[in-house]
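Researcher: Good morning. I'm working through a list of sequences from a screen, and I'd like to move beyond sequence-only analysis. For each chain I'm collecting a predicted structure so we can compare shapes side by side. This is the next one on the list. No need for commentary yet; just the structure.
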Amino acid sequence: MNDDPIDALSLADWRRRVADIYAEVRRTIRSDPDSALAAWRREREALYREHPQSPVPAGSRAAFRARHFSTDPALRFAVAVEPDSAGVEASSAAAGTIPQGFAAAPAQLVVSGAGQMQFRRIGSVNVPFPTGARRLSLFWMEGYAGGLFLPFRDATNGRETYGAGRYLLDAAKSADLGGDGRGTLLLDFNFAYQPSCAFDSQWACPLAPPENWLDIAVAAGERLG
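Model: Good morning. Structure tokens for this chain:
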């Protein structure tokens, strides 16, 4: 973003619209997950095709059509957040707040292009995939307001999805499927999506660390090929 106030207002509008999409998802995902997913796909595609802040290059937007794997209900989970540090309440992570004196482990995630971004590893989730449980680290973004962050890589990367992985949760961008406020998060991999850098290298995106590289194919969510 440059210093143009119109550009700033456009970015603010983009963020509002993405936040509205996820707010509607959280309202309906428990009672009607298929409808929530259909609305998410439809509204995101429209934003990526029509909005001036779309990560899709301007010359490719009019023809843009989102691609997805077939919906797989077996890849929807409610999982407990297991804190890394003794005495840290998992409920604080699920509620989207960090308690005073939080002592999670610092983590630097590599950013596409170059550099690193500061996070804190606040715990992990044990995801009961049909092929066997796998553990993923859950991060909290450093800086103003913070936010949950759950990136991952899997065996679809580089062929059907972006080579450096996808995101499931990124609360700084409003991508949050919700939780029960008592230590459990909703993880529905049908909502997995490509980071902005998958569409244009001008974007700088934090990437999944090796601990979140899965040895299985997660054939759900957005795809490229």
